[in-house]
Design a protein that fits this description.
heterodimer; A: alpha/beta; Rossmann fold; 2 domains; 5-stranded mixed sheet; 11 helices; 14 strands; 19% strand; B: alpha/beta; 6-stranded mixed sheet; 8 helices; 25 strands
């Protein structure tokens, strides 16, 4: 097997150019290793090699992000690497952010594995831990002795496409990706044990740390609804009869956009629900029960609302991840705005 | 209330002329069962089949799983208010055909029936790959509405289970477990120094095929109340649910509620397990507020120091779970909640639809969205034509060779929220 080709990114300080006073140096690339790259190379034991090192000042990178990213990408491409490593950045904030930013850029653009390393409280860790493998290090460069072997070992695994185990085993900062595992005891026993520890005031480890919950602040009220263009959006799964886009009954991976220009009323012949989370009899019988097109047409005629938007958007909320839901809405909300929609009635089941 | 649970260990099941238990083998008379189930005019036909652990058999779409149990001594009968008079159960002696399960299946009623594989990778995820399953493929008459079909299939399962269980009436059990809960004041006097612990048992009651019954009462119409734990072992609670297969509590799960078992295991040693509070998961906000207020109120009234709260289903009931947890914690009672996750196929999404910092002790049954490949099976009990449509399936789930790529959501009991399994999830 050929040696794994690696490009390594470091800042001006670790390249020996200088400290804060030299933080505005522009990106440059040098053949082979510079600074901490030597420690990494030693750990690769011939399986991999740092073919080039990119050096960039922290201020320059962070103050000229787009420019720096473009320049650095061009430099990296030339070396045709199999893997990209940045850092370790330890607790250097701007260095950490630069490592994270450039890693993500390389991963997304060049589609090769990337890894960086830093202290868990480095702001770069918080910004990028979800998207990147970040090997956890101590908070100062004094930790290089342990950081370099850990980073090198992880990098090799990644480059070889080996399975990456749990964060506690591999030493990276948890990305918050949930994976199923089998534990020693059944859940009920774990719950009883956890409760007893909690009651005794002893340590217990929750199996799911509560996330920050995203609350949406309501928009200001519509000033004159009689002039407003109103759209219907539903997570109740109403679709044209036959579910033409095969929206899943649960865990939807897509949403549908359908024309209702010709409809004053949804009927058993025209529409149905694809939702698997409730008895579909009544929604299939009259889909207006979930997507009230009939009532909105009345309101349109009576002049209560300005007009009903000609498309409705629909998906099944049943078991659909928050991530997917956010993604759908982010897309079609833009379309709604472009189409001049003033208000949306969101129905769920 | 004191209940003796006599377990008759069954190691094989076979068709025979008489339904009986002999030397650990259960014999069932197929025709007798068919005749009994066809008494219901809503059912057009029924096929009885047997599935055993290790066989290359797939059962789908699975509706409910029931353990055959029979009352040997003491008042009332199994499934009070439904199959027997409404007399309070939970005392005396009950025999269990341990290792046997009645499985009802048939064409889908609400997208949320499941899959049980008796071998292969899917078998790892369901407890019912380890049971000897007497399966009933139930076909409804033409034109029957979904909820009517659900009710007919549900009753057929209970009838069959109770009928089969009678074979264990006079059989000497292999082991007898004894469970006892004393009236609250006596219990507190008996263990004055142990923390008082209760179990908040959330029942799926979103309606429209999402229903649970307590002594025959539709649980959406109850306000939270108190049960002796042993009442549950006698079938006080039963499932009428078409919630996603992975985290619906089948009747079997209720009958064998592992949280109740494991709380009993520590009772008198580390804790004083004083009782069960049942509550519902209704869809209206006022119902959610009322039920969670009452649940917290009852916890306080019982003088609890701690409570385990278990959920059923996902999404909408996540709000009930968090409300219960928050309100109980606000009264100074420590909680552990048992749930499962819908973190997306990539595991990167937020797992629950609601969250609160008070929920700091969580047990999870795993991420239901994780995708699995189930290889083809030699024998199918039921039918495969609904595979793409059931919750957790998607367009193209069923492949031409009979293999299935789907979320583990499709597997009956995979991410059970009573803590029935060892599966869990962790952050990577």
């Amino acid at each position: 097997m050929n040696k794994i080709r690696i490009v390594h990114y470091i800042n001006q300080f670790f390249a020996g150019i200088g400290g804060e006073e030299k933080a505005d140096v522009r990106a440059e690339s040098r053949e082979g290793v510079v600074g901490p790259g030597a420690a990494l190379n030693a750990q690769f034991k011939g399986e991999a090699e740092i073919v080039a090192t990119i050096i960039c000042g922290d201020s320059y990178f962070n103050e000229n992000v787009e420019e720096a990213k473009t320049e650095i990408l061009e430099m990296i491409k030339k070396y045709n690497p199999d893997l990209f490593i940045a850092g370790p950045a330890f607790n250097a904030g701007r260095y950490g952010v630069a490592c994270g930013t450039i890693c993500k850029e390389v991963k997304d653009t060049l589609n090769i594995p990337v890894v960086t390393a830093m202290y868990i409280e480095n702001p770069g860790a918080d910004m990028y831990k979800k998207e990147l493998y970040i090997v956890e290090t101590g908070n100062s460069a004094a930790g290089m002795k342990t950081a370099a072997p850990a980073l090198a070992k992880f990098a090799l695994k990644l480059a070889k496409g080996e399975e990456i185990g749990a964060p506690s085993v591999e030493g990276y900062i948890p990305r918050g990706i949930r994976k199923n595992i089998f534990r020693e005891e059944r859940g009920s026993k774990r719950a009883v044990d956890m409760l007893i520890n909690k009651l005794k005031g002893e340590e217990f480890v929750t199996e799911y740390a509560m996330p920050y919950f995203d609350n949406v602040a309501p928009n200001s009220a519509i000033k004159d609804i009689s002039k407003a263009k109103v759209a219907l959006v539903t997570s109740g799964g109403i679709v044209p009869k036959g579910n033409p886009d095969h929206i899943e009954s649960s865990s939807a991976s897509k949403y549908g956009k359908y024309d209702i220009a010709g409809y004053n009323d949804l009927t058993v012949e025209t529409h149905e629900t694809a939702h698997g989370g409730y008895d579909p009899v009544y929604a299939n019988d009259d889909s207006d029960r979930v997507l009230p097109v009939d009532v909105l047409r009345d309101l349109e005629k009576e002049g209560v609302i300005g007009e009903l938007h000609r498309y409705f958007y629909t998906t099944t909320g049943n078991g659909t991840s928050v991530g997917n839901s956010k993604g759908f809405a982010a897309k079609f909300a833009k379309e709604l705005v472009t189409d001049g929609v003033d208000a949306v009635i969101l129905t769920s089941t | 209330m004191r209940l003796e649970l006599g377990r008759i260990k069954i190691t094989d099941v076979q068709f025979a002329d008489t339904t009986k238990v002999e030397k650990g083998t259960l014999y069932v008379n197929e025709q007798e069962l068919v005749n009994m189930i066809l008494e219901d005019e809503h059912i057009k036909s029924v096929k009885v089949d047997l599935a055993k652990p290790g066989e290359e058999t797939r059962i789908t779409p699975v509706k409910d799983v029931i353990e055959p149990r029979v009352k040997v001594d003491g008042q009332g009968g199994i499934f009070p208010g439904v199959m027997n008079k409404v007399t309070t159960v939970g005392t005396g002696r009950t025999h269990v055909l341990s290792g046997v399960a009645v499985v009802t299946c048939g064409k889908i009623v609400g997208f949320q029936e499941g899959i049980i594989d008796m071998s292969g990778p899917g078998a790892e995820f369901t407890p019912f790959s380890k049971t000897l399953n007497v399966c009933f493929v139930i076909e409804p008459i033409e034109g029957l509405k979904q909820h009517e079909y659900e009710a007919a299939a549900r009753m057929a399962g209970f009838k069959a289970a109770n009928f089969i269980a009678k074979a264990g009436l006079d059989v000497l059990p292999d082991e007898v477990e004894i469970y006892e809960t004393k009236p609250l004041l006596e219990s507190i006097l008996e263990y004055p120094n142990l923390p008082k612990v209760g179990y908040v048992y959330m029942l799926q009651t979103q309606g429209l095929l999402h229903d649970t019954y307590v002594y025959g009462v539709d649980a959406k119409k109850i306000v939270p109340t108190i049960l002796y734990p042993t009442e549950v072992f006698d079938g006080a609670i039963l499932s009428g649910n078409c919630v996603s297969a992975c985290d619906k509590n089948t009747t079997y799960h209720h009958q064998n509620n592992p949280i109740i078992h494991d709380l009993f295991a520590r009772h008198g040693k580390d804790i004083n397990f004083v009782g069960v509070i049942i509550t519902n998961e209704n869809v209206y906000l006022a119902d959610k507020e009322r039920s969670s207020d009452w649940t917290a109120k009852l916890c306080k009234f019982l003088g609890l120091d701690g409570a385990i709260v278990s959920q059923e289903g996902f999404g909408n009931p996540d709000t009930d779970l968090i409300m219960n947890c928050k309100k109980i914690e606000n009264l100074g009672i420590k909680t552990v909640i048992v749930t499962d996750e819908y973190a997306g196929r990539d595991g990167a999404s937020q797992s629950l639809a609601d969250a609160d910092a008070k929920a700091d002790a969580v047990v999870t049954g795993g991420n239901a969205n994780e995708v699995i490949l189930l290889p083809p099976m030699k024998k199918i009990i039921g039918m495969l034509n609904y595979t793409d449509k059931i919750a957790g399936g998607f367009d193209g789930s069923l492949r031409p060779d009979g293999s299935i790529e789907a979320e583990i959501q499709v597997i009956t009991g995979a991410t059970n929220e009573l803590g029935f399994n060892k599966m869990s999830a962790t952050s990577f």
